[in-house]
Amino acid sequence: LKQFKTASLSSFSLTKESPEILPAGFLLDYIEKTTNTSSPHVRSISIYNDVSYLVIDGSSFRNLEILGNQRDGSIQFSLLECVNFTKTAMGSRMLREYLSFPLTNLEVIKSRQDNIEVFFKDRALLKRFRDFLDGILDIERLACRIAMDKAHAKDLQALRYSLENWIRAKESLPSSTFSLSDDDDAKTIVDKISKALLNDPSTSLTEGGIIKEGWNEELDHWKLVSNNFSQVLENYLEEEKSLTGISSLRVKKTNSAGYCLEVTKGKLSQVPSHFIMRRSLMNADRFTTAKLQELEENLNESGTKVLELERDLFIELRDSLKMYIPYLQKLAAEVAYTDVCASLAFAAVKHGWVRPIMEESLAFEVSEGRHPVVESHLPSGEFVPNDLVLSCEKDSARFSLITGPNMAGKSTFLRQNALISLLAQTGSFVPATYARLGIVDRIFCRVGASDNLAQGESTFLVEMTETARILHSATEKSLVIMDEVGRGTSTEDGLAIAWAVSEYLLEQIKCKTLFATHYHELTRLEHSNMKKLCMAVSEEGSEIVFLRKVISGSAANSYGIHVASLAGLPDSVIKRAEYILNKIQEESKGKDIVNIENVEKVEKDLSINAQQSFTGALFSDEELILDEILSVDLDNTTPMAALKMLSRWRSSLSGQKVRKKAVFLKNFE
Hints:
The chain has 669 residues and is an alpha/beta fold. It is 47% helix and 13% strand. Strands 1-11-12-13-9-15-16 form a seven-stranded mixed β-sheet, sandwiched between helices. The longest helix has 31 residues, at 290-320. It is elongated. The two termini are 69 Å apart.
């Protein structure tokens, strides 16, 4: 109430019990303590609701690398880097706000698109307008400094130059598209500052050099005394010569007596009565007058008077600008908005983006979509675009199960579609050749592996916590991106969790979902609202090439051993892994497709199979020992080492070991 100078907060839709009051009060208190002054320019409070914005939880925000990358938090390799071509600090701040709070209001989204399109279609206007923006400084912060009595003379000149550039920039914009304030107040502020302040004023109020000549008569007088005292004395001397008729009259200055008039001995008879004797010399006498004493006093005071008057006049000018603070804040927002529109238009031109068709529907249709960040850091034409069509309408595919090897582009494909949706709801153009998108209320992105050891949370617990948040919070209008759910635990546990999560998203939430996995067993699932996609791979003999193209179908191989080889694992490890993989694949052949829409049948089958035991080991001891014998390097094996191996093999073959249950999908056959 003290801050806003109101009797109640009802005009701001707040009551005494409103939860927003407490944090807002702490914020105002913090500002006052850190700045050691009040903040009179803060005159209102506005409350926003999550319904007005696309909701992105903290982990999804980090995973999508919207404002900073996950490696070091810097802007490099982030979405912000791809679209931030703003020219002003105000525009940069607003762009961050837009990316943090995408819209859900279709009309506002379309309005932003219209404004961006003005610049997108007229490249000459875009260049000219951005050139004007180059000369605009932070009007919002300059207004704050004025309001808090912290602005110096250079700040006011910066405000003047910024307003002059904005007036020129505004004249270039079509008024029919941009609803902007008139510039009468801006012209008044510019006129005041240009008439009152020097072009390059001092920043200190104790040094002078701030106010222009002609702004104040008294200041002009004292500046004349201070800067041109010799001329003042000369004028006075001429007056006395004319009055006395003493043509040889001179002005002298001594350290002891100050300024005085010197008259030679031969002219003493002409000395008038208003001359006051100061000192007699051999050849002349020295006198003073009331007028001369007054001039000398003025000279001694002039320096102090000039500083005092300049300080007072500057403060008076600065205070007179406080009445324009609301106007300057509104104008700063207009500058920021047009700067953001120009920045997004420049990004669309630079990257070849298109305007998406936005509608109140459950559609998600993208042709030749691209990841904005990855594409911007690759040579032109190297990024492979991909299509995606999802819809939550009846009998339409809303769930995409994506399989394929590591390094083939699954994560890029997942993230690019989330970023396309986010960009579209900020009003931006998107990296695609065509896009028709329905408004989504939330974006969830569960990718990557991380832990929170300080709070006792393992990698798998963090993964499950994020998954639980999605399943509890997602709605039919949400977009869910999930990558490798369940990989942080044992294979059978992870597969079971991934299976159950897929069912829940398909049958309960029914939202648009991109679900990437390395559990190839999930490809046996069938559902009318699910489609299967995979990453294309070219195999020619031992040569494997990841094409980074998304196609219909399921991947037959994860090519993890190939990636491990690229990473530099020892050849012996690679060969052993290939042998074990072949054994595993032989064990898991012939699994049936499961239609999860028939839930009762699935549960019955699971119950029956869960009661069946499987006591055979994955590999027999004989197989393992035979494989080890074949891999022994006889030429470099000592007799003692050979005896130890024989003893171990005999012990292994003679004893009976407990066999483990099969690991791969026995409960889901």
